Amino acid sequence: MSAYITLMTPMTDEECLLEALAELGFDRSKVEVHATPVQLVGFAGDRRQRTANLVIRRQHVGSMSNDIGFLATATGYHAIVSDYDRAHHGQGWLAQLGARYQEHWNAKRERLAAEERRRLEAERQRVVEAQRAAIHERARKLFYRVEETRDGETIRLALVKRTY
Q: With bands split at pLDDT 50, 70 and 90, how would you rate the model's confidence at 32?
């Protein structure tokens, strides 16, 4: 029976970890995702004490292999790899996984930042248009005419009152 070792990883985002695993040959059909950790299984089909939230079952790892797992913790996923499987899925493999994870994490951060910028810009536009409409309405009630000019992002409103 192979002993399992736990390796700390700086990976905290499940989506990015799954994408990185897919790049290393473990697509979503080969990775089980569990909200509650499940037991890992050894090469002989025996249930192990170790549990994980993301599990790559032994048949996807290789002949005579054990399950590989990733346990979700507050500080990131802990990789759980048996001594036997460390030959192919040890530090070098985890370094590759970490590099691919980082690429996906950076892309996700950029995507989220762009979405936030678009959201803030849309909110700013909504506020500007609401203020503009309020000024037009107030001016109309006070019998002013509004002359509006635009220069790029700048809107200039001039209130004109006709006097006789």
A: very high
Q: What is the pLDDT of residues 56-84, one digit of tens each?
A: 999 999 878 999 999 999 889 999 999 88
Q: Taking the CB of residue 23, how many other CB atoms lie within 10 A of it?
A: 15
- Domain match, 12 and 91 both: yes
Last residue of a domain, one of 65, 91, 108: 108
- Decide which of 64, 90, 108 is a domain's last residue: 108
Q: What one-letter code names the amino acid at 117?
A: R
CA distances from 54 to 32, 48, 78, 86, 119 (A): 6, 15, 10, 17, 33
pTM of the full structure: 0.72
Kindly tell me the sign of the dihedral angle through the C-alpha atoms of 137, 140, 142, 146: positive
Instruction: Give me the residue label for tokens 């635009």.
Output: 150
Residue 44 tokens read as 């002989």
Q: Which domain holds residue 53?
A: 4-108
